[in-house]
Structure formats: C-alpha cells, structure tokens
Amino acid sequence: MDATPSPSSSSAFDLVSSALGRYIPRGAATGDAGSADARGDRGTRVPGDPAAGRQEQILGAVNLDRDLVITRCNVDAPVFAGLDARVGRPFVDLLPPGDVPTVTRRLRQVLETGEAHVARIQRLRRGDGSELVVSMSILPAAHPEEGLTVSVIAMARRLHLYAAETAIGTSLDIGETAQSLAESLLAWGDVAAVDLDFAVWTGEGVTGQAKGRIRLRRAALVPDRAWPEGYVTPGDDLPGDASRLLAQAVLRDDAPQTIVIPDRKAVERVLGSPRVVRALVPGERSAGVACVPLVLDGTPPVVLGVAEVWRRSDCPFRDSELFDLQELVARTAHHVDLARQHQREHTQVLALQSRLLPRSGGDTVDIASVYQPATPDSAGVGGDWVNSFPLPDGRTALVVGDVVGHGLGAAATMGQLSMEARALLSAGLAPDEVLEHLDETVSLLDDADTGLTAGYSALGSTCCIALYDPVGHHVTLSSAGHLPPVLVLPDGHAGALAVRPHPGLGAEFALREPFDVHTFDAPPGSLLALYTDGLVEDPSVPIDEGIGRLAEAVSAVHPWDTLQEAARHVVSALAPARQRDDVALLLARTIGYRKEDTATWRLPARYDAPARARAQVAALLGQWHTRDDTRDAVLVLVSELVTNAVRFATGPVTVRLIRAGHGLLCEVGDTGNGRPRLRRGGPFDDAGRGLHVVHRLTSRWGVRWTDTGKVIWAEVTR
Prior knowledge:
Elements: H1 12-19, H2 30-38, H3 50-53, E1 57-64, E2 70-74, H4 100-113, E3 117-125, E4 131-140, E5 148-155, H5 157-167, H6 174-185, E6 191-197, H7 198-202, E7 216-222, H8 240-250, E8 259-261, H9 264-271, H10 274-280, E9 288-296, E10 302-311, H11 319-356, E11 365-372, E12 382-390, E13 396-406, H12 408-426, H13 431-445, E14 462-469, E15 474-480, E16 486-488, E17 494-496, E18 518-521, E19 527-531, H14 543-555, H15 563-574, E20 583-590, E21 598-603, H16 609-623, H17 628-648, E22 653-660, E23 663-670, H18 689-697, E24 700-705, E25 710-717
Antiparallel strand pairs: 1-2, 1-5, 3-4, 4-5, 6-7, 6-10, 8-9, 9-10, 11-20, 12-13, 13-14, 14-15, 15-18, 16-17, 16-19, 19-20, 21-22, 22-23, 23-25, 24-25
Helix pairs in contact: 5-11, 6-11, 11-12, 12-13, 14-15, 16-17, 17-18
C-alpha cells in the first residue's frame, strides 16, 4: 500500500490520508480485529479493551481513476483487515454484487457533476466472504482528470446510532424519512424494510390501537436492486395475511414488542403461505428477521408501522444489537409522525387548491390552468392560486395571486382572498377597487388584536386581476405587486404587459400607492398568461430573463393545440421537477363575440329616448328571428331601463344588446352614480315599480360601475 503523502499535497485523497494518523490506534492487533469481524462480530466493543475503544471511528481512503480502478489506497487501520484494496483492482470488486449497479451510478454521477456524495451506509466485502459496514463518502478531485476519492469510516454501533439519528428526519417527505431509516438499519443486516400503516402513509390521523388497522404499505426498502417477482417493493401494499401477522406479532399482549424469527424454517412456519413468503423474504441468504415496531409514546402507545431487518441465519442477532435496533427506531419514530402530519397538511392544502382552480371560462374565452405544488420535503404547500369565472355581465375574470408563506395559514388566507375577490368582481366592482378591499383584508388579518393569524403574516402578498371584455376585445387589469402577465397577439408578437410596479397587499401606510388600471387590446385568438413567481424565478438568472423564457414558451403554443396540454407543456419546460416554491399558470385564449351578435346605440337623454331605443331593438330582434315572447320581454326591459336612465341621470344613454348562448344580454349605461336597489314598496308607491318589472322579466340583473357612471345589465332567456 502507498505511504502517507506529504502534507503539501492538496488532493482529497491526501487530505483524508493526512488525518489517518490521528485516528489509527498504533500498536493495535490487526489480526485480532480482522478475525473478530470475520466471525461476524460486526464491530461490537469488548468491555475493558482500550484498543477497541480507540477504534470507535476509523478512517480509510481509496483513490480511483475515471475507470473506477484503484490507483492509491490507505486502509491500514486494523478494522479494515481483509479488504483486498490493491492498486490496479476495480473498486467494485470490494462491493457485494447486488450493490454494484447503485454504487457505480453514484461514482459516475460524482465524476460527471463534481458534487460530492456524502455519508451513505455501505457494505464492503472482505476476502473471506465476511462484510464490513462503513459510512462511505465519494469526493471529487480538484481536477476532473484525476478521478475521485472514496473515504470510508468504520463505525461502532453507538456512533452509528448518533449518525443515523441526525440523518433521519432531515426531510418532511414520509417516503424519504422511511428510506433514511431503512438505510440506517442496513448496518445490522443484509436487507432492511419499513412498512407503515396505510393511514400513516396517507397522512390520516392515527390514534389508539384500532384492531381493524392491519393494512400495511411498504414505504422503504434497501439495498436498491432488482427483486424477484412477487416481492413487495416500495409503494406496494403487503398481502392481508402478512399485514395481520406482523400486526399481531408486534402487538403481543396488547403491547408493542420486538420479535425475532431466527431462521428460514421458522420464518416459513410463522408466515405459513408460500405467497406471503415470496412477498416478505428477500432471498435464500437472508433467512432470519428482526421486526421492530415504530411506536409513538402515549397511553395507549400508537404503532405507526414495522421496521424489518433481515440477516443470514449463520449470523444471529445478539441482545446488544437488538437493543441498538430498538433504540434507533424509538428515537426516530417521531420523525415518521412529523412527516405524516406534514403529509396530512399537504393533502388538505392541495384539496383547497383544487377547489379554487377554474373549471371553465364560458363561451367567449378558452381557459386552462396548471397548479404544481412544491416538493413534499419543502416548507409546505404555498399560497399560489389562480381563478377564472364568467361574470354575469358577459365579461370573464382572470385572477392570480401569491400569498406569503406556506402551510395551512397561507392556504386559509389564500381561500379567503380568492373568495372575496370573486364576490366583489361579481358585484360589479372594478379591478382596482377589488384590490383596495383585498389590501384592507390583508391588513386586518395581520392585526395582532384580531387573533386570526396566530403568528402568521400575509403582508406582502400579491394579486393581479384581469377582466376580458368579449365585445370590445380588450383586457382591463390591475396588479398589486404581482409579476406582469404575458400577452401573445394573433400575429405572434409576445411579451410582458407594461404594468407599473406596486408594493403589494398590506404595505405600510407610507408605502401604499393607488392601484393603476391598465387596458390592452386582446383581439380574438390572443393568448394571455397569468402566473406566479415559482414558474419564472431562478436564482442564477435575472427575473426578466425568466419572464422572457415564459413568453417564448407561450408564443410557441399553436392555435390548434389543446390549451390544457399546452399549459402542462409550458410548466414542464420551465419549472424543475423538484422545486422549492409552488407554480401556478393560467392560460386564456380570447374568442369574444362575433360582430353580428352585438349592437350598440348611443342616445341623448331626452324624453323620446325610450321610444327610439324600442324601435332600434325591435328591428334588430327581427333580424335575429327572436321568438315573440322573448322580443316582447326585451322591449319592455329596454323601455324601463332607458326611462330610468333619462329620469335619474344626465348625459347620453348607451344601449347594448348581445346575443350570447341561450340568452340575450341587455345593457343600459348612463352617467349617474346612484345604485338601483330592489325594495318592497307599498300598494300606492309609484317609485321602484320599474325594477320590479325588470326583476320579473329577467333571469338575472345587476350593476357595473364605470369611470363615467354605471351600467345596468339584465339577461333574458331566449
């Protein structure tokens, strides 16, 4: 073997090797350590042996070239005795055959990316067939052509318990948490598996010891290799017989207990069915098993699942090892429960998000939306939301928002703002007025005196509201700190709309600014994209470049493409598979009304305006071949609305008739600012009778406010 290099060297191999002198106990009996491990001692300390105490953690280093062949090695510690790590030998010869594909893939990945692969539990084969459990790290060289360095640490049981406990629970994903536990358990056997109660896997609440809960699902399995047909792998449900047997075994006398089945004959006798044996027993060499319940302390204790460690029958479990296994599982069971709670919250927020996603955009606009939550191991589902709905007056509302924070607090605020925006828009308020109300709502929610937020603040949330007018073919929008929408015109011109920046919702009083209203032409065939920052933000590039990439992706959508598939393609092209923030995208393709389906008249506010309006409308309804009863209702409706406009308002009166779907939409605009209200009048009251007539003739009616006055709209079914 190579001698320890000079301290002046700076390669990873040299740095690790230079530290070996501080850890290798000089004068230790190499042969004793090797023979002990060859007998299956697996590193247990011998009481009163000082040399053994100094071998709690032993380092070794092996340098590999780009063909994964050993070029230098330094594994002189006694604990590594028996490893045939000769220069010129392929490193994979030190691995169990089943681990070769996985480890080779990791080695190649470090060579290609230059990113270290740190602290994975791995087994190395000795020349006599025994195995040594190590913590293996793969370190890239300073120069790619120099290959890489593999450092190994032979770990004693107590140190391994500490390392495993710190490694488990770093992710909030229940599958990754179970996988970390299984990888740590592999130090005690040949195969490790974690099977969780189905309610734990789905995030449901688990309380008490319900006798009916016998459904187990495999959450993790190591090592990573090809398993025979019929064997249960992650994501599969265990057969009902196996679930019942495991549940009964670990709940003997109504108390969770670890059980050990020492050999294959006993395993087959306990499992009984050949199908269950195929599903649970990993192979001929792994015949004995220790089943350790994952238990939450309580009265009574709650069993979350079962951890299984399989080992060859010629290496039986010692009492000290079983104590260590139980201690590790007991220390980490609460991490599994935390992941379960996170999964439950994740599922609840996703359900709320799906309720808010738009279903359709009506007849005048085609709508598609995609919501992609953050990865489960992040801080939780965020407050990104999109919504689209047709307004009663024929326009379509497009809304996108991003609430600060993650989890249920952000989801609750998101739902409240979304529903409030929809109610206010349906009531006829303009986008800037709606944002003013949302701004006040966010400020109230953040008021500590209300007690509604419980430590959660939504200050700085953003929102953008766009209204599409299918008659005028334009979009009116207001933004509260949100990124600008992207508009692609029918001629292919694409870009972000010029929207003035705004501080966002709930800004301090001194920073508050009025919400601007912007109007843009959107002829039929235009494509409008509203989105949240998770789709375009990348720490490595400016935000403008991300928006530009989005504009390119949206402009590539063909007019014949299905809009929902196009939206998915845009998200998959721009958003990474695993992102730390939510992604929401709303695509709207404008259609509008045909010119022959609308008509507008502008009349002076004089006594003859109702008669002139009736004449114009009657002629148009004749051209549209409207039924007589519908025509009579529309003429009475127009007469009443125009009469009210002349009587109570000033300036010109605008009359618009729209043929939409199965109804006729009539609009009468004036310069008045009074709000018509339907009231219950007395038998001799003259005022208010016109609105009662409008109410009885129409399927619905309402008021929309404009910069110059108001518009009363009413719909008649034809």
